[in-house]
Amino acid sequence: MRADNTRGFASDNNSGVHPDILKAVSDANTGHVVAYGDDRYTRAALIRFEATFGKDIDVFFVYNGTAANVLGLKSATRSFNSIVCAETAHINVDECAAPEKFCGCKLLPVPTKDGKLRVADIEKHLHGFGFEHHAQPKAISITQPTELGTLYTHAEIKAIVDLAREHDLIVHMDGARISNAAAALNSDLKKCTRDLGIDLLSFGGTKNGMMFGEAIVFFNRALSANFKYTRKQSMQLNSKMRYISAQFEAYMSNALWEKNARHANDMARLLKQGIDDIPRVRITQKVETNGIFAIIPAQYVQELQKAFFFYVWDESTSEVRWMTSFDTQPEDIKTFVQLLKNKLT
Ligand SMILES: Cc1ncc(COP(=O)(O)O)c(C=O)c1O
Q1: Where are the domains of the chain?
Q2: What is residue 3's predicted lDDT score, i.e. its pLDDT?
Q3: Which of the four pLDDT bands, split at 50, 70 and 90, describes residue 4?
Q4: Å from CA of 179 to ligand 1 middle
Q5: Shortest CA distance to 160 belongs to which of 173, 149, 147?
Q6: What CATH number has the domain spanning 256-344?
Q7: 19-251 and 256-344 in the same fold
Q8: pLDDT > 90 in the chain, percent
């Protein structure tokens, strides 16, 4: 049984909507504007993207993160290509084979210890170029921060981009939580993406205070030429676009993205501090953003979930995932830590 209405630790998707975002949606709810994005809210949001990432980019809004990933990758590949990604990547595990269906490509998942692709692991897949019997490698997809909450350093990403350039591959970044990464690295969104040579970015907001809507940001404009047709054909062109655009405008104004992400990251750090000395909780990944992965005794999982819902990540080891959100409160952490201490010490 899940404890609905408590702020649990299952997912940052379980959180609500930041009041500034709701206000922006409400403020946009006046009169008629032209549908499908030819409106002042969308123009304002696109200007905001240029102010954040620089000029000469193409930005398209879609409904969700799976579409951003899949359609972004589709724009860069053909069906005889392959895409290298971490075994734990959302595109490999959590998108119901949509990348395979829509891109037609072969995914080449790489086992990792911490969700991060490394140059040496990618290199093992970079062969068979020009050989008609092999799928042709074309893209490397990295997730920042990773699905395990860990962070690539700028240098690690740069090394992957350099490798991609050597082999004429493109680099896609799944940035469903890129705001959490930028905040944790004390960096800004452009330095974490475009300045490192990323070709295209799935830019997320839903997990960090938006209601819905994600963006595909093309830094490599050669890839975006036909994207408007792809988006429509893939049923991701929102007619009432102003309600996504207004959210992004608010999300990227007054550093809301950063404020929310910093708070979520801080809450994860607070949780880590609280549980560090509980002997029967073993943290399995570096806590670098807003997720904690830990092994706890299986017999307590259900009872703890009743109080604060969270997911079991790996049944076989009783590894669980605790995610914090922009709206997690220090009291939530305090109560949860006390509960863990009561049960596990
Ligand atoms: C790393 C990552 N990428 C992308 C997504 C986007 O998924 P959705 O299609 O549910 O918005 C998620 C959501 O959980 C995610 O964790």
Answers
A1: 19-251, 256-344
A2: 59
A3: low
A4: 14
A5: 173
A6: 3.90.1150.10
A7: no
A8: 98
